[in-house]
Design a protein that fits this description.
The protein is α/β, with parallel strands linked by helices. It has two domains: 54 residues, no CATH class; 99 residues, GMP Synthetase, Chain A, domain 3. 24% of the residues lie in helices and 28% in strands. The strands form three sheets. The chain has a three-stranded antiparallel beta sheet with strand order 1-2-3, with no helix packed on it. Strands 4-7-9 form a three-stranded mixed beta sheet, with helices on one face. The chain has a three-stranded mixed beta sheet with strand order 5-6-8, with helices on one face. Helix 2 packs across helix 3. The longest helix has 23 residues.
């Protein structure tokens, strides 16, 4: 059989990037499992070689079945939104000629029930404190525009239905 067109599907032709994570869990010892008394501790491994301890949140599965020291999916979601905004903000600021000296964010995710009564992370509040150095210095309006552009271009923000609120503060060094 011959073809005059490309052999890739529409999905493959529009794929810009692909990201992978390996998630592993194993039942510990003789935990019965069906009684819900098993560890939710597991690992996330990424292509760069980093392995992160993960677990359900102790807010949703009580200790000792959760691992308080591990990252839970809700925290990771909030961190992904905050990290993407940071990276996109830095990119936009540099393109506009503003030198950023530091960026720190204490991001918060709010979990509520949706219209079907299901829990979801309905809002992520970003509160980045950004220090600029040198000239030019952005005005308050330019600073807010940088955040708007960062939000519009952020891959993660474009991938979620949660409300993302940015309450940024700036300073100059």
């Amino acid at each position: 059989m011959t073809s005059n067109g490309p052999s890739t599907s529409m999905k493959e032709r529009h794929l810009a990037h692909e990201y992978r994570a390996t998630v592993k869990w194993r039942r510990e010892g003789d935990a019965k499992f069906t009684d819900q008394r098993y560890s939710r501790g597991h690992t996330w491994s990424f292509d760069g070689g980093v392995t992160v301890p993960a677990s359900s949140s102790p807010l949703s599965v009580r200790l000792p079945y959760s691992v308080a020291e591990a990252v839970d999916p809700e925290e990771a979601f909030v961190a992904a939104v905050a990290s993407c905004h940071l990276l996109t903000f830095l990119y936009v600021a540099a393109k506009r000629g503003y030198a950023v000296d530091s960026y720190a964010d204490e991001a918060v995710g709010e979990m509520t029930k949706n219209e079907r009564g299901k829990l979801w992370v309905s809002k992520v509040i970003l509160s980045p404190a950004i220090a600029f150095t040198g000239e030019p210095r952005p005005s308050r309006e330019q600073f807010e525009e940088l955040h708007h552009l960062a939000h519009e271009e952020c891959f993660i923000a474009n991938s979620v239905k949660s409300e993302v609120v940015v309450q940024g503060a700036m300073s100059f060094v």
